[in-house]
Amino acid sequence: MMRIRAAVLEEFGQPLVVQELDLAEPKAGEVLVRLAACGVCHTDLYTASGADPTGYAPCVLGHEGAGVVERVGPGVTLVGVGDHVITLFAPECGECVHCRSGRTNRCTAIRDMQGQGYLPDGTARLSRGGEPIRHFMGTSTFAEYTVMPEIALAKVSPEAPLEGCAPFACGLATGIGAALYTARVEPGSTCAVFGCGLVGLGAVIGARLAGAERIIAIDLSEGRLALARHHGATDTRVAGAGVVDWIREETGGFGVDYTFEATGNVQVMRQAVDAAREAWGLATMIGVAGRGETLDIVPRLLITGRRVTGSSFGGVKGRTQVPELVERWLAGDIDVESLLSHRLTLDEVNRGFELMEAQDGIRSVIVFDQ
User: Fold this and answer.
1) Residue at 220 is within a domain
2) Cut 0.70: pTM above it
């Protein structure tokens, strides 16, 4: 048992409370990770607000983490002490029916317990005064240390700065993967990305890496549109009611080959469907809509050839493909530094939420003392 500092969600709608907790040693198949950095993601805010119908409290939030392996439990073979790792809310066991398929990244190995806030054996490693504190998304990275299953860690190059690795744990990999692995954007194609936060910028990057000829970025912020151009967008447009008509005009009246929705707004999702090309356009939904919201689609749009799909963690198989994306960064193909807007301490975690709500920057990263 060790004492750690962590940010605890005590009550929905209230600021997180940074405090000392107890963290138990890793059990069989588990790993103790010393966190070096953790991104503050919208999913954390979504749960903290109480809007997530599957949320629970108290728990330690955080899932966009990167750090160093400190200890391993019995039977661990995938990582070793000293390895640099990225935490994965979407694990990859390599053995379940989904992992064996090339069609999905939705590993089923530990899903049930993970969704309830526990590690695979149905218990928690976090506690306070002897009472268990539940984990979040199987990661709980708003903490100095975390214990996680080995199948939920991606081993990455020690040459990659851990602050820059953190966004690959969720937002950045989700966007890039949506283009590369879900939509499978083809060279020479046309794309439109709705929303240029971290996920949308990731989709712009992914479309560029895939060889798209034209990448249209849509957002309300001129600053984010400028960043989209920096990352590969060939055209930008301020979001608004006429954007679909403009995209069609720009593409001979047909629409683009691929659209990506990264706002979670169902009206924008509808725009993404409408802007997809008749006959073969693919609209990929990445954003998370609010509870109870629905997306209405006129059947004629589908009958005439458009397709609509969703993308969870960008279709990325975490242990296999996250390290490959990090290598693309190290090779100079991805400018991660431009996406890191604010560096915070753990005590400033609630400021990370405030910056997000104010749409100040792309990604705030908590940096832990080394």
Assistant:
1) yes
2) yes
| Cβ–Cβ < 8 Å for 38, 62 | yes
Nearest Cα to 18, choosing from 142, 150, 190?
142
Structure tokens at 4: 């750690």
Structure tokens at 338: 């431009």
Active-site positions read 41-43, 63-64, 93, 96, 99, 107, 111, 170, 363
Nearest to 202 by CA among 286, 283, 277, 122: 286
CA 38 to chain CA mean position, Å: 12
Q: What is the pLDDT of residues 93-139, one digit of tens each?
A: 999 999 999 899 999 999 999 999 999 999 999 999 999 999 999 99
Number of domains in the chain: 2
Residue 359 corresponds to which tokens in the numbers above?
């749409």
Determine which helix (DSSP H) or strand (DSSP E) holds 4, and give its type and residue range. Answer: strand 2-9
Statement to judge: residues 34 and 113 lie in one domain: yes
Domain membership of residue 325 (yes or no) is: no
d(CA 354, CA 305): 42
Task: Look at the chain and count its residues.
Answer: 370
The contacts of residue 296 (CB under 8 Å, 6+ apart) are: 270
